[in-house]
TrEMBL record:
Keyword check for Signal: yes
Protein name: SH3 domain-containing protein
Secretion signal, residue range per the UniProt entry: 1-25
Organism of derivation: Luteimonas lutimaris
InterPro entries, per database record: NLP_P60_dom, P60_peptidase_YkfC, Papain-like_cys_pep_sf, Peptidase_C40, SH3b1_dom
Annotated ranges, domain NlpC/P60: 310-464
Family membership: Belongs to the peptidase C40 family.
Phylogenetic classification of the source organism: Bacteria, Pseudomonadati, Pseudomonadota, Gammaproteobacteria, Lysobacterales
Amino acid sequence: MTKFSLFLAAALGLSALATAPAADARVSPQPTGVIGVDTSQLTPDYWVDRQRQADRVVLDRGQIALQNRKLQETDPSMHDIENLPAELDAERVRDWIEGLSRRPERTLYDVRGKQVPSKSIDDIVAATNLKAIPKTQPTRYGLVVHRAALRTFPTDLRVFSRAGETDIDRFQESAMFPGTPVAIVHESKDGNWLFVVGNRYAAWIEKQYVAAGSKTQVFGYTRKVPYLVVTGAHVRTTFTPDLPAVSNLQLDMGIRLPVLKDWPGTESVNGQAAYTSHVVELPVRNDDGSLRIVPALLPRTADVSADYLPLTRANVIRQAFKFLGERYGWGHSYDTRDCSGFVSEVYRSFGVQLPRNTSAQSISPALNRLAFEPGDSRDKRMDAAKDLQVGDLVYIPGHVMMVIGHDNGTPYVIHDTNGGSWLDEDGKLVSGHLNGVSVTPLTPMRFNASQTYVDRMTNIQRIRP
């Protein structure tokens, strides 16, 4: 090697050292500002690597099917809509609607912070059109064709408990997703809303998002094989101007999609060759409100699986972390999700069904429940916290968290939260304003200045044999 070559190599080496970040700087964990959490703990592998037998199957397909059947048969929050009678009487329909759409007693505020007038509330209640419920009606079915809000009343008016707080809309209940089967049981006075009953929830939905079909057509769609399962936080169908109803459609984790595996690759779907995509089937609503099933393209790069994922500790952690940082959405607002929706959709990617709300999840007889009474000692609660396992669901009033493991003897959780508080070094309560899917230790988290989350635990549900 010439002197010039040696000089050049040395110069290049010095340049690389000068411009490249130090190895320690690249890998060294950094504080996050959240108690007990550094950046290394914000990756799924950190928690997977701490598990023994991380890939061992916790529940196999048969066990999951048995648990789902038990949930349907024993949990009062669930609705077996496929086995509804051929005709519905008025009392049953009225019970569904009045069980949800009760006139609010509290003062409510609109998005501008103005009090919602009593007359407006009266009009919203009247829109439920209860007097129009027929004495009997044929049981009608449909499929949801687009992710859509489920509402307490047939209105898109957003209302809040306090002026200036506009995240938690008190008329927002949940959401339904494309391909969800429903029983259509009533219509609002203006004809723009339907009251529907799904397996997990009964509420008002905009009529434009439901396509009515025969019972055979609706439930035949849900059983079609082969199928794909959405395993990403969400995926989107390919954009197409040819059929806007299935263009850029959001499909959330756990949704099952019939797939047309034998579709010729060179044959187009909605104006595009299919060979770079999965050809899936989706429901759409005809102009007359009837159901039609159409092909649509889902990119091969989409995070999907040919079946439900195996239920393992590693997969639970990895699926949960796909939502990390997503904004909190009360009742599935903002096209995101809330705490119970988050854990439901993680488990849905394994084929495991859960009730929709924390109140029902926490006491479901279909799961392995450890219940706490208000008088239970802190020692009993701390012993339970020490024994928590990956995938366990920990409930406090109005909130659920999913366990991802222990670090230095402390249990850690991932949860979709609009709050999050702890004590600082001076013993003062710090509000973290997490407002999204977050990783935190369990034991330091505070319900208020005097009580921790552990003090307030009501139940632990374990998805186990």
